[in-house]
Design a protein that fits this description.
The chain is an alpha/beta fold and 281 residues long. The chain is 31% helix and 22% strand. The strands form two sheets. A six-stranded mixed β-sheet has the order 4-3-2-1-11-12, with helices on one face.
Length: 281
């Protein structure tokens, strides 16, 4: 099976990436989250990091309710444009949520529910939103676990863990145990997440403009389950600057790269052998 893997389009589907997807004629397309535009939110967050974290302010506090709703609406609407392009490709698409997707619940206080990704995706017959699911496609098992629970910034000088990260740990463990118990053959199993495993080259922030520069920001629960079950490959994204692969025991950890800039990878599984090739288009 030939699988095109994309992540982090963030509201932009480059023509060169779209053309490449058409030409390659993949059997399946996996999208590891963050199709929604979030550059505006990210800039506001990075520029006001101390205020947001030390003073416990929100972005809405900074810009005001009216402007915040306008930014939120524009961001949520961008998902439909990305889904429309994905839907026109000649292959079924499996999508998970990242940390930029807007769900109905989070949009409800602003009366923007119709822009929730669960609602928008119903318009597109070739795309499945399979978040935290197990599915078999031909002989290949795909375990999906989307979403994002925050940063675990653990270094020698900083051992603090965000409250959100710690609170969701039991939930993640329960969900992943339920999903992985369905795995029959690790060599024929794909584990797709948005976040990357913790404490690897891949989760080390190299972007100097980030307040987390030089820290490991991956997910320790994902790492633990990969080490325990050793699926053939973990397809992930989130870390825009760290496209590529590295090994975690017998599992290939493959970061698709920054789809927004035309990065992606092609995954092939044949005779229980997995190969992955990366592209910067």
């Amino acid at each position: 099976m030939k699988i095109l893997c994309i992540s982090d389009l963030h509201g932009k589907f480059p023509n060169r990436l779209y053309s490449f997807a058409k030409e390659e004629k993949p059997d399946l397309i996996l999208v590891a989250g963050d199709i929604t535009e979030s550059d505006t939110f990210r800039k506001l967050q990075f520029d006001n990091w101390d205020i947001l974290h030390k003073q416990k302010k929100t972005i809405e506090d900074l810009v005001g309710g009216k402007k915040y709703k306008k930014i939120l609406k524009s961001s949520a609407e961008s998902a439909e444009k990305m889904l429309s392009k994905l839907n026109r490709l000649d292959a079924p698409v499996i999508l998970i949520e990242g940390n930029a997707e807007h769900c109905t619940g989070s949009l409800a206080p602003y009366n923007l529910q119709k822009f929730g990704i669960e609602n928008i995706i119903l318009k597109f017959e070739n795309i499945l939103l399979l978040d935290r699911s197990f599915i078999e496609v031909d002989d290949i098992a795909i375990i999906t676990h989307g979403g994002y629970r925050g940063v675990k910034s653990k270094t020698k000088k900083d051992s603090k863990i965000s409250l959100k990260y710690a609170a969701h740990k039991k939930q993640y463990i329960k969900e992943l145990e339920s999903l992985f118990k369905n795995m029959k053959d690790r060599k024929m199993t794909i584990f797709m997440t948005h976040d990357v495993p913790f404490n690897m080259k891949m989760d080390l922030v190299d972007m100097k403009s980030s307040p987390m520069h030089g820290k490991h920001v991956g997910d320790d629960t994902y790492r633990a389950f990969i080490e325990k079950y050793q699926p053939a490959i973990n397809i992930c994204g989130h870390m825009h600057e760290n496209q590529g692969k590295e090994m975690l025991k017998k599992t290939i950890i493959a970061n698709c790269g920054y789809g927004h800039d035309g990065q992606c990878c092609i995954l092939k599984i044949k005779d229980k052998k997995t190969t992955v090739r990366f592209y910067k288009l």
